[in-house]
């Protein structure tokens, strides 16, 4: 009798809705965070300009979409353009700082973030822009009409991350990246062009940020500060997942997003946000290498 | 052409004979900067040696509030340029000293102190985010400088936290609620769920609507606070369910775009009547909302159309000039919003007060306050949106309110409520000055 009462008291509809919300948010976050963690893992650079690369991707998406009317082309071109821009930023600002105090790279990327943000405001102005989603269908989810597009974002993010993982695992240049992550000196000794691997890694990270900017743009409108809203959470995910650990970041993104979504059922969603900070503090206190990093044997 | 120029005498002299040294470059640079400083500012040519009035203008020009801050600055700059072109105030030009609060209260307070102590401003027109206005209010009071609040809407600025030095020449939440609540109940439904930006302005506006909706015979079923700058509001909006008639949104800026898009995506704007503060459907937000904002019913002191109360030559002049100026800061050519309007009118109200009181500088602050208290603003080029009174008791103005609907991507007037029908009893006690 008591078990039945407990089962009845559980808001199953809310749990399912928030599970979907958590997974969708988690996949977007994972896509942003995987670029961030790649850059940190290979170069030991905490990229404070990551949110602005996300934002620039969305703006380039707006321009391409306005010109061609094709969302998928906008996604592709924005990713490539921002990847090239990322390569240029790495060569000009970060490569000269290689081997110096990590604080200098933090300051450099912070400076780049301010420049990009104010450039966007100057170039595109204060009016928010729209990226029209490629389709607008809905399905009924209890009392909500849930947009298919949100599920597509989750699926595409998973596909991009999956493709990237395959590239790292089996591609020649992916193996170069992994080798450089594991031991930079040894990789160089084996003939891997480490400075160019750094540039490529930064470009890939920037491209992933841009792709997430275009994918997420239709839900929020594009403005010069849209990157700020995501980058803090992406940093939390990277720390909880283990700095430089790609798989860990993906797991942490989904874990934190689901925790927040479930907490939102019983407390105010504004209070649920605190959950991610609690997880961050506990991770730093008890497992500073990251929650999803295998314990060394 | 290639490298031959290097062999010419002048090039040899300049580049290869040691004439260009770092010291000389620094010297020439310093000289050039000095010369630039000596070039007279535009107002000097017109006003000779007349000492300018220094007017400070703090707005968020970077950070989360920058989009609105930029349009706010267009309004105040437009007013200053017009005043200077007409011969200034009391024969003296106005020099606008712009400061960026970076959308942060601590920075806003620091920049306010700088304007007071270093720039020695005579008065201030500005303030965009309510939490920053609240943080800066005591500084204006302590420095005894008139502060014309030009965007902040938090109720307490002219109620429990009022002071003798601060004036608000535009509306506030209680007046909006007085104007809007009867319409909401009569035309849209009795039971409401309020979703609001969870900070000072959103909270005080929520309270004002809750009070007026109850007074009009309605009911607030639930409220949902969403932190400022939340990018994904879906977890919050997914909890909005139950038996009620309408969803009332209290948001502005990019949060207005986010809620407009995401409430539509989840089907909330179809299931419930969708209404709220006009800032959600501000002209600068409409491009990013597209057709998802169709049918939204809002209230605002200003909408960029030339119909009804805004079908006047004075408004047309304001509309055309602000549109031209906005096109310079945004290539998409936005229409003026309420931030341009209230900054423009706040600066003009200050000018009227300065002329009436024969204001010379900070030493005449009390005379300026007396001139502004009870100021009747009449439809004119100074006040293109119409008549309003700046109430003496709490330094709060009561402009016209427009209830509108978004149809075919444009604002359409449903009803207008004159300012004197939106009066709300004063709740301010000034400390003795």
What are the salient characteristics of this protein?
heterodimer, A: 297 residues, mainly alpha, two-stranded antiparallel ribbon, 2 strands, B: 433 residues, alpha/beta, Rossmann fold, 3 domains, 7-stranded mixed sheet, 5-stranded parallel sheet, 41% helix, globular
How would you characterize the overall build of this protein?
The complex is a heterodimer of chains A (about 300) and B (about 425). Chain A has about 300 residues and is mostly helical. Chain A has one domain (about 10-225). In chain A, about 75% of the residues lie in helices and about 5% in strands. In chain A, strands 1-2 form a two-stranded antiparallel ribbon. In chain A, strand 1 (about 140) and strand 2 form a beta hairpin. The N and C termini of chain A lie far apart (about 45 Å). The model of chain A has no long low-confidence stretch (mean pLDDT about 90). By secondary structure, chain B is an alpha/beta fold. Chain B has three domains: about 5-40; about 45-170 and about 315-400, Rossmann fold, CATH 3.40.50.2300; about 175-300, Response regulator (Rossmann fold, 3-Layer(aba) Sandwich), CATH 3.40.50.2300. In chain B, about 40% of the residues lie in helices and about 15% in strands. Chain B has helices at about 10-15, 20-40, 40-45, 65-85, 105-115, 130-145, 175-190, 200-215, 235, 255-265, 270, 285-290, 315-330, 340-355, 365-370, and strands at about 55-60, 95-100, 125, 145-150, 165-170, 190-195, 220-225, 245-250, 275, 295-300, 375, 390, 400-405, 410-415. In chain B, the strands form three sheets. Chain B has a seven-stranded mixed beta sheet with strand order 7-6-8-9-10-13-14, with helices on both faces. Chain B has a five-stranded parallel beta sheet with strand order 2-1-3-4-5, sandwiched between helices. In chain B, helix 6 (about 130-145) links the parallel strand 3 (about 125) and strand 4. In chain B, helix 4 (about 65-85) runs parallel beside helix 14, helix 5 packs parallel to helix 6 and helix 14 packs across helix 15. The longest helix of chain B has 20 residues, at about 65-85. The radius of gyration of chain B is 25 Å and the shape is globular.
